[in-house]
């Protein structure tokens, strides 16, 4: 019996010797785990802070980009508004210049008309009588037989007005009064000057026209059917053959 008791006691001591180190090891592991938990918590906090900082940076960058876009849009709108204002000012300036040019042209026309009227008024009685006599002597008694076209006369062989001068000063839209122009009689034919050219009447003028038509009626010069003709706007359809010289 004593032997069994001794053996049991020995076994108990051996078991205790084996259990005590295991318990100590477990306690050490638990202690290590407890030490690791604050470190993990700190790491998690650091990660959260880093994520928050990164999120803040992204937010700030997005705000800065949005602000830059808004500024660029405002600048673009301001530039566009300035361009519109400049264009409007340029258009207004061009309109003013056109109006000034129109006023100047109108003023020049008025001055020319005044000069023509003064020239008309400055004709002396002797000049009037001489001109009236020349025109009366050149009146046709029978227009149908006296009138001849340039084709009937063998074609026009006189001076030809350059196109750039003709297009701007001659034709149905450019009427004038002969009495207001320089005038002379050459070889018994009335001759007047207009726009730097001399025009001589080759045909007599129709007796159906008023006796003072050259003082009052607007006439115009036109090139047609290979020759120059003078028309009276008061009596359309009747063209008098004329020759041109410098």
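Sequence proposed for the structure above (246 residues):
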């Amino acid at each position: 019996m004593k032997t069994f008791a001794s053996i049991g006691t020995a076994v108990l001591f051996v078991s205790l010797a084996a259990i005590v180190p295991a318990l100590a090891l477990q306690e050490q592991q638990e202690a290590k785990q407890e030490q690791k938990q604050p470190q993990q918590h700190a790491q998690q906090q650091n990660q959260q802070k880093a994520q928050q900082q990164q999120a803040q940076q992204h937010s700030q960058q997005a705000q800065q980009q949005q602000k830059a876009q808004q500024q660029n849009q405002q600048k673009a709108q301001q530039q566009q508004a300035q361009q519109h204002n400049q264009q409007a000012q340029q258009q207004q300036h061009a309109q003013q210049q056109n109006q000034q040019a129109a006023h100047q042209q109108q003023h020049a026309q008025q001055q020319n008309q005044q000069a023509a009227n003064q020239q008309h008024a400055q004709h002396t009685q002797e000049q009037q009588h001489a001109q009236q006599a020349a025109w009366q002597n050149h009146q046709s008694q029978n227009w149908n037989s006296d009138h001849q076209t340039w084709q009937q006369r063998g074609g026009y062989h006189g001076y030809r007005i350059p196109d750039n001068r003709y297009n701007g000063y001659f034709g149905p839209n450019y009427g004038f009064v002969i009495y207001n122009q320089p005038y002379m009689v050459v070889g018994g034919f009335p001759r007047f000057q207009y726009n730097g050219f001399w025009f001589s009447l080759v045909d007599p003028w129709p007796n159906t026209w008023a006796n003072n038509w050259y003082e009052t009626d607007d006439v115009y010069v036109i090139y047609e059917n290979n020759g120059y003709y003078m028309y009276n706007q008061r009596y359309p359809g009747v063209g008098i053959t004329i020759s041109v010289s410098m």
